[in-house]
Amino acid sequence: MPIRVSTSRKQASLMQGESMGIVSASPLGPVEPVKTLPPMENLPPFPAVAMRALNVLAGTETSLRELCEVIRPDPVFSAEVLRLANSPLVAFSKEVSNVLQASMLLGFRRLRRLVITVGLRSYLDNASAQLLRSCWRHSVACAMLAERTARWNSVDRDFAYTSGILHDIGRVVLATMGPDSYASLLARIPDHPGEMLRCEQDMFGIDHCQAGARLVSAWHLPEEFVAITARHHDPLTHAEDAPEVTRLACRLADALGFSVSPQGSPYSAEEVLAEFPENVRTHLPQVREMAAEIAREIDVIDATVA
Ligand SMILES: [Fe+2]
Ligand SMILES: [Fe+2]
User: Fold this and answer.
1) What one-character-per-residue DSSP string does 234-264 give?
2) I need a labelling partner for 296 at 20 to 30 A (CA). Which of 22, 23, 35, 168 fits?
3) pLDDT of amino acid 263
4) CA distance 96 to 145
5) Rounded Cα gap, residues 125 and 123, in angstroms
6) How many angstroms separate the alpha carbon of residue 264 from the centre of ligand 2?
7) Which residue has the higher pLDDT, 164 or 3?
8) Domain locations in the chain?
9) Ligand at shortest distance from the CA of 212
10) What is the CATH number of domain 44-304?
11) Tell me: the pLDDT tens digits for 8-48?
């Protein structure tokens, strides 16, 4: 039976931002913890090419050519970069036949964006097959929305996109600990963060925010990503910074139909948009148009990437 959030709590939550521990009793009832948290080193590693692309944001001196040279020996990434470079997403007029040519046409920013997106997809596929498919769609939707809204803040667009891709990575930890338990939890709980985090705590002894922060720390990614994974369900601050851009983008992705839980978001897109700064909101397309644009991009990647 799905757990629904009452209107009064829903309103309070929207005004104050969701916080952990709102509910006094677990919506799941008495729960046996699944098992102890595995050492982060035992989890599958993030694809090396995507990790390299992520670390570019850490200030390493990887140029377009260097990134390209990391991609070329990797047959999976090479094939996927070429497929996407020849897809309707990019729509170059001539056929792109090698990675170097693709990288020159795409440019560094788009190539890195593509590598990170494909990297998350292959990581989630390896980790738990279909279980986290909705997580991939949600993360890409969140990344696209974060990138778009960052444009109207003083937040770096690349960083916003990457934050969106990584923010829910902690779900992989929980899915690895108990794939069936996590699937059943996702099926039963709507994507109200307070409820979701509480249930994850009850079932796994850790929630996906805490787990994500540990995983990203173990990968030695920059501290900014640790903060994004750890705090993306904290109450809204209304600050013009990357955590706030990610928080709002995550909520909007849920409300636009790209929720991790099949139960969906308890909030409408209009309710979530009301939380956005006015200067951002006025630049966003209509809700339907935004949802269609995101779905189109995700479908192209889905159809193109093996
Ligand atoms: Fe999350
Ligand atoms: Fe999210």
Assistant:
1) SPP---SSHHHHHHHHHHHHHHTT--SSTT-
2) 168
3) 82
4) 28
5) 5
6) 12
7) 164
8) 44-304
9) 1
10) 1.10.3210.10
11) 334 334 333 333 333 335 565 655 666 677 788 777 788 88
- Counting ligands in written order, which one lies closest to the CA of residue 249? 2
Centroid of ligand 2 to alpha carbon of 246 (angstroms): 8
Write the pLDDT tens digit of every residue in 171-187.
Answer: 988 988 888 888 888 88
167 alpha carbon to ligand 1 midpoint, in Å?
6
Long-range contacts of 16-21 (CB under 8 A, 24+ apart): 16/235, 17/234, 17/235, 17/236, 18/192, 18/193, 18/194, 18/233, 18/235, 19/194, 19/234, 19/235, 20/194, 20/197, 20/198, 20/201, 20/207, 20/233, 21/194, 21/198
State in Å: Cα 193 to ligand 1 middle.
Answer: 7
Q: Which of 270, 258, 284, 261 is nearest to 189 (CA)?
A: 261
Which-ligand-closest: CA of 137?
2
Ligand 2 centroid to residue 57 C-alpha, Å: 21
Looking at the CA of 253, name the nearest ligand: 2
Q: Which ligand is nearest to the Cα of residue 136, counting in written order?
A: 2
Give CA–CA dist 100/109, Å, rounded: 14
